[in-house]
Amino acid sequence: MGLLSISIWLPIAFGALLLAVGRDEHAGAVRGVALVGAIVSFLVTIPVMTSFDTASAALQFVEKMPWIQRFNVHYHLGVDGLSMWFVPLTAFITVIVVISAWEVIQERVAQYMGAFLILSGLMIGVFSAADGLLFYVFFEATLIPMYIIIGVWGGPRRVYAAFKFFLYTLLGSLLMLVALVYLYFKSGGSFDITAWQRLPLTLPTQALLFFAFFAAFSVKVPMWPVHTWLPDAHVEAPTGGSVVLAAIMLKLGAYGFLRFSMPIAPDAAREYAWVILALSLIAVTYIGLVALVQQDMKKLIAYSSVAHMGFVTLGFFLFSEMGVAGGLVQMISHGFVSGAMFLCVGVLYDRVHSREIASYGGVVNTMPKFVAFAVLFAMANCGLPGTAGFVGEWMVILAAVKTNFWIAMIAATTLIFGAAYTLWMVKRVYFGDVANDHVRELTDIGGREFLMLAVLAGAVLWMGLYPKPITDAMNPSITQLLGHVAKSKLPS
């Protein structure tokens, strides 16, 4: 087994172990095993970063062996500059989630921790798969643990939110399966994604494939107007579920555009880019206004995620190196920032059991350490220079200016709306006089909470101040992708 296989199957093995033998009467041991499993799984992914050749655009750490020989399906793994960073990011976020649930989850602890570990391995599988059917299996399998996490440990409307999440994402993926089967037969019986990229397909065929993939990936991002499942899922999910959903699962759809839609149907991608650009700009502007009127902190951050992911798809379909790089950087930074903001809401909810903004006020008077972190993450969410939230958005806006001034003008409004809804929430929740007895009785964060927020704060500042290692690894793969998209693949 290579590094990628270990990164995938080690957390799944730890998760399966917890599901098999974990009991609530041994909750302490269960938490310990889960933490060890998460940390070891993260450590395994570090060589993927340190040994990655940043000068190469080819797939690296490749593993390939027969899987379903009758249909020429292979267990084929590999990462390039487009996917490499999401392997350690997924494992890192899983460590944070395990720590965050240490004292909060008291029932079915083994099942909770096991579900997140299994989910971590499956998501890494999505980013590592180089075989179309293997990608689909991992892509769909991620729904199962997240469905359980929302449905079992969620809020009062958890069953409704879990069903909505499952149905939206599953139905969208069915058209992708049809596209994968078509490509399999068109390529002479191969599920190799790189082989599909060389197929000479007519524009009508490419258009059908492009919109089949669009149906799956747009729901997962999620893009407007198929975003309505996300606020419900976030509001009802436990804190860890919201963190993973925002930090990693939304990225699966955006990554799919780069791995399937653009390279396999490049002519259709250029032809119908205006559709993606229009929907992205609506998400950036309209959803920002929707976020501005939210009274539930989780719902506000959920809508904020839709707006920020609109920047990602906008950057991709500008077809410029800076735009695609900005979209990828935005995906990674959003993983840190949105995950941290949901953790901050979780810290307050664990103490007051309310997510309503009106339930708070003057929290800085009783929780100064916590508010220092919360305000930093809020500033990053606004796109403050020096934080992770600034880099990707700025790159996308610069790329948009070179393409079309008015696209850039509309996209830049997210900086205004983002600052408006984020700072409005910060003012009402954290500053001012103590609003009520619940806030007056709050206790500041302890060592466990301080550790997880400090680690995320370090990541947000590091990425904001020195993003060069991240962009250096991406650039060769982005150049290759855009060169491929620029050349017509229409049959002569």
Side by side, the strands of the main sheet go 1-2
Q: What's the tally of helices?
A: 21
Helix-strand string: HHEEHHHHHHHHHHHHHHHHHHH
The pLDDT mean sits at 87
Which structural class is indicated by helix and strand composition?
mainly alpha
Number of strands: 2
Strand portion: under 5%
What Rg, in angstroms, do the CA atoms define?
22 Å
Give unreliable regions as ranges. Answer: none
- How far is it from the N-terminal to the C-terminal residue, by CA? 43 Å
What is the makeup of the main sheet?
2 strands, antiparallel
Overall shape: it is globular
Proportion in helices? over 70%
What does this entry show, briefly?
By secondary structure, the protein is mainly alpha-helical. It is built from 21 helices and 2 strands.
List the helices and strands and how they pair.
Layout: H1 3-21, H2 27-50, E1 60-68, E2 73-79, H3 86-100, H4 109-128, H5 132-141, H6 143-153, H7 158-186, H8 193-196, H9 203-220, H10 229-236, H11 239-264, H12 266-271, H13 273-292, H14 297-316, H15 321-352, H16 368-382, H17 388-403, H18 405-430, H19 437-440, H20 447-465, H21 468-486
Helix pairs in contact: 1-2, 1-4, 2-3, 2-4, 3-4, 3-11, 3-15, 4-5, 4-6, 4-11, 5-7, 6-7, 7-9, 7-10, 9-11, 10-14, 11-14, 11-15, 13-14, 13-18, 14-15, 14-17, 14-18, 15-16, 15-17, 15-20, 15-21, 16-18, 16-20, 17-18, 17-20
